[in-house]
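Q: Could you write out the predicted structure for this multi-component system? I'm mainly interested in how the pieces pack against one another.
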Amino acid sequence: MSAAIEVRDLVKTYGSSRAVDGMSFDIEEGEVFALLGPNGAGKTTTIEILEGHRKRTSGEVSVLGFDPASGGRAMRDRFGIVLQSSGIDRELSVREVLELYRASYTRRRDVDELIELVGLDEKADDRVSTLSGGQQRRVDLALGLVGDPDLIFLDEPTTGFDPGARRRSWELIDNLTSLGRTIVLTTHYLDEAEHLADRVAVLNEGRIVAVGTPDDLRNAASTDTKITFRLPLVDSPAGDLLEPLVGRVVGRSREIEVVTPSPTADLAHLTSWAMARGVELEGLTVSRGGLEDAYLDLLAQDDGEAES
Amino acid sequence: MSGRISVVSTVSMLWRQTRAQNRAFWRVPVGAFFTLGLPMIMLVLFVALFGNDTIDTTYGSVKTAQFYAPGLAVFAAASATYTNIGMNLSMRRDEGILKRVRGTPLPPWMYLAGVVLSGVWIAFVSTVVMVGLGVLAYDVNIEAAKMPAAALAFVVGTICFALLGVALAAVARSAAAAPGIANSTILPLAFVSQVFVSLGESRDVPDWLELLGNVFPLKHFALSFGEAMSPFSEAPAIEWGHLGVMVIWAAIGALVAWRMFGWDPVVGAATRRVRRSSRAAAG
């Protein structure tokens, strides 16, 4: 496998603020790569530099062998860009818009096939202005694919979607990956990154906090396990139950949460305590932190380092 | 593919772009009304208010509509290009359409050329309608021998105002600002450019108004086109001086567009400041 995108020490400054502050990463051909982070982390700035929409301040960037700052027409011929909330010629029909944009590419996908792919068969001859927001975003996606691109940029592809529309978009993007296309996407939804991406780069304040598969990221973050249960109503004080625990106890009234690096020992203590008294620990669950915990943990670690 | 394109594909893409722009224009009834309907209503009103009398001049006698029709045709042509292009382009930039176009292999100049050509075509339709209305309803005469001069004035004038329309979109940073700039420039100028009223030598026109009209291109458009429609001029009636002034303004429009035209939406003053500083940093 060879790299579709190579980024080294990328920096973008606006006045004194550093929107992108020294990023380096590679994206392999055929890979789905997600830039994940909160608003203002530098996701959109980074993807727009890769697309050639913005000029970088310093650093090396290669996209399909082109420098995006000067790649021009030959480079854009191989891109499909789906921008965050960008307009479509409202007065034209779905088919007219697709035919218009299709004409400027060397490789061209069949318009009817594309319309079917994004599920707009019944709206093909309707004007874009009459479509719902979700349908317009599907036209967006079709426009990104009309040149049969090797590389597809998706900037927050499902922001503002209802859950059903999001699921459908995910299926669409899954279809693209099966064609072996390289996809770069930005998102602030964890589940989206987890569902779609082979690898995720977590961004915070213009820097990459961690890169890896969703599993890698879970491992990189704290590996503490969470035990939750409801405190039983018994006469003896709860101190017997909670004080010997290795983990940290976070509890509100009867709902107890134990975050522990030693789940086996803590679980053994809890269950033997309950069995000795013949009571039930209601709602007892043991769970490993999800990607969300890992993500929040990574961001918290990063902010902690920045402050210290 | 190395970025080279054949003449055939260039022409076919230009045609496609122009046709798409054109379609989009005629599908918005309000825009079509302002560009085409308003000048027609003005011609009808002018004749109704001031009459279509036969007036005697030092050159001979002529119907007054002979002057109103070409003047208003020029005004319609300037609206179809300058105002229309300036407003539409800045609207499309605000909507992110221009940014989308910039991310495709379509060369930027080709998109703008499509916009300009579509504006020229719309101007052609409105000019034909205006002059046609004059001929059919108000006894306006046209002479075949002077039609090449009329066509030349039309082509130079509309290309000049189309480029100024692109320049207008470059200067106006948002779609909200564009109509204000367009109307506050073209409307006052129309009154000193012999478009609405013919400022003959006999009338007492303040020098500064005369100068204002002479500096800007609208008067030169009106005079070069009007000369070809005038019953007093000798064929071929080509006004090289007036055409020359419009060519200079076309160059100014092209220069401003080339230096200042932006494709990305400008969100607010903050973004503008950021852009300027980033450009300074890059330079």
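A: Regarding packing and overall arrangement: The longest strand of chain A covers residues 3-14.
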